[in-house]
Fold this sequence. Notes:
- The structure holds 3 protein chains of 3 kinds.
- By secondary structure, chain A is mainly alpha-helical.
- Chain A contains 14 helices and 6 strands.
- Chains in contact: A-B, A-C.
- The interface between A and B is large, with 46 and 44 residues.
Amino acid sequence: MRLRIYYPVIAAALLIVVLHLALAATGKTFYMTQITMSAYYALVVIGLCLLMGYAGQISLGHAGFFAAGGYTVAVLTTCNLNGLRQTPLVEWLSRLGVLVSWRDLYGNEVLSVSPWPAFIAAILLTALIALAIGLPVIRLKGHYLAMATLGFGLIIYRLALGAKVLGQADGISGVPAFHLLGELQINGRTPFRIQNYYIAWSAVLVAMVLALNLVNSRVGRALRSIHQSEEAAHSLGIDTYRYKLATFILSAVLAAAGGAMLTHYNGSIGPSEVTVMKSVRYLAIVAVGGMANLWGAMIMGILLNFLSLRGVFGSFDDAVFGAILIGIMLFAPQGLLRVPKLQVLTSLLSRRSHG
Amino acid sequence: MNLPQIMQYGLSGITVGSVYAIVAVGFNIIYNTTGIINFAQGEFLIVGAMTAISLSHVVPLPVAILGAVLITTALGGLIELVFIRRVRDASVLRLIIVTIGLSIVIREAMLHIWDEKPWSLPYFTGTSSTTVSILGAYISVQVLWVLGVSAVIVTALTLFFRYTTTGRAMRACSDDRMAARLCGINDRWMVTLSFMLSAGIGALAGCVISPITQTQYDMGATLAIKGFTVAILGGLGNSMAAVAAGLFLGLLEALVVSQFASAYKEVVAIVVLLLILVFRPSGLFARRATSVRTA
Amino acid sequence: MSDILLETRNLHRSFGGVHAVRDVSMKVQAGTIKAVIGPNGAGKTTLFNLIAGTVAPQQGEVFFRGKRITAWKPHAVASLGIARTFQTTKLFPHMTVHENVMVGRHPRTRAGFVAGMLSLPWTWREDRETQIKAADILQDLDLASCSQEIASNLSFGRQRLVEFARALATEPELLLLDEPAAGLNIYETQELSKLILKIRDRGVTCLIVEHDMSLVMNISDDVLVLDQGRWVAEGPPAAIQRNPDVIRIYLGDEHA
């Protein structure tokens, strides 16, 4: 019976292939670029869904974690250590094999950290930041937690705008492709479009499987119990603080992974990824997906980001997400996928994530 | 620094500080009757100022300001009636999310109405170059307007909550909503009233500060986080302490600007906020611990 | 004399000048039912919270099986073998009855975040066992028929029983029951006393805060009387009923 939670994953995998074929048949393969980008944003949303929907903790700072991942790989893979070749640290790193030499757009030789070590560093650094922020902040309730995470997000935003090493208002560009394994690489150039469509979707499906496993496990039960009655959960031996903190870190790490991969895909990252509005957007997507509904969050994450990236909302881009927040809370607190008419269609997908 | 410089920075600190205090008082009014933090509080100031700016082209300044305050007050009431009241399963999380949504929608609406560029109201008396000299520091007359209006708002609110029946009824709601209802107080109307009141004083504050700082559609969020910092610093719900905390934050910002770069100014409030949340969540002036943390 | 399971020594806690618990020392023998009684505001629930770790004492110590557990956090106390119910029932309202009881297995299981995410085979087995154990407990308390119902849809009395079942699922040595009979009718109260006796007979020690005197006097082996946070008397029910200090507290000076 346990395998039942994976049926939607298989269905989703098939749909992804069908979508590819449909796009190819209609000559709209250029949509794949935005779908790929949306998929990386969906990673943030999946993490935030665990934190908000299951553990019941709000965060208005997840764009900060996304940026922590993105900026870390951007800095590490573009910094030129050529001039520092003789220093002991660089020599040591070089001997460890984490450095790579390549030529930038102008043909200059660049010595920088290669993508895999940079990616691992980004994940570890973000986990550390989330730990440092979470230790004091995750004890707070409701408004206080919302404001504290908002404050964290704003500090990262100011840092991105102010720090020279982060490129200030211009951000960092010229981030190289991420060679994953053999011919596989995260690369935004057109010849790699189809490959990257599948890489991004694979990342999303892997994250979904891990998240689904988690919410259907002992830990998932504990998280839901914390959400519903923290005092009772505590009295049953659940270390509520530790569980909330661990979920906070886990969701931050997912955001960082999304940020790091998207940065490689886009070849750049800038302060627009760190605005409060971005954090609010992730929150809106989790809400519209139905809070404690991983499939809802994932589908909405892809759909809304895709529409936004295609420019469908025009100059009302931010307003749309604001209106979504109000509308969902007023008319469909269980999320769009739980509105009765749609429920028949989606019950197959949305129920399962509850086990 | 010499005395005039200290005065200069000090007065500018007190000026912005008193505006932060008014934002914090706005937070407190709504928090006291509903227990929620209205993330759209900063937008009330901007809506007020923008409306006054538009009106000032057609009617005299005092009338424009009065009109703007009334319109924003109505907007506050409308927001409560149309949105807040209808939130199903009104948990804190949901209400926070609704007010966040509202702040974004209001901000984006202002972007479409008033554009991205900064606007400002004319100086209430004199021009931008009219100054008075206090202890060797030259300050704009508008500063006196800001301080005066802030003082009047805080005094009037204190009197209102202490001596009028409606004010007392609102306080009763904040102490115990159910008991207030049993005493025949219309608690729903009190909530609407609290939104109107905090929108109205927000609008007034937005108008008096506009000639000094100018007004741009997206300034609300910054004001909100600073106002919230001040509200927390004073202890949520405590308006007198909020004034002291507002002046403190204003002066601290002025000090940072005078000693370091103004780029760090925005970070000051956030750092203060995080510190206070971590170490003294019930506020600097609180005597007893309130439950903002989990066990 | 059997073993001492729980002991408090000079416990003290005040809230803003009000002394909720003052200098209370008491012992609970393993395998017995002990009741804590006293007028409103006597500090009974605070005493519970001090033992369960919800509130930290300002002075004094708590020992469980001779181990010092003063000011331990609730989850640590629970993991050690002390389970509790609440004065106002605190179920997980959106979970099924079965899931509620499964959460109670938390301290007896161990799958963490990594194991949970990877869904390792041993976590499947563990979860399967959790499901079976929870079902068994529900069966035992005659709750099997409502095991798939959402907790918040149950009647008040039923919710109370589910909270019981959930506490028992932690396999406690000591069960703290905070006013278990409050809001129950006379028949439900009778069922409850049978249940408490059954639990005791299986070796679970019970400490009960209760207002219902007939319940207390019928089932408890030992009674502690508190008044205004102070220890007043301790002893078997029959002796407590004759104790002049206790009579004075409940009926006033003229009856003593």
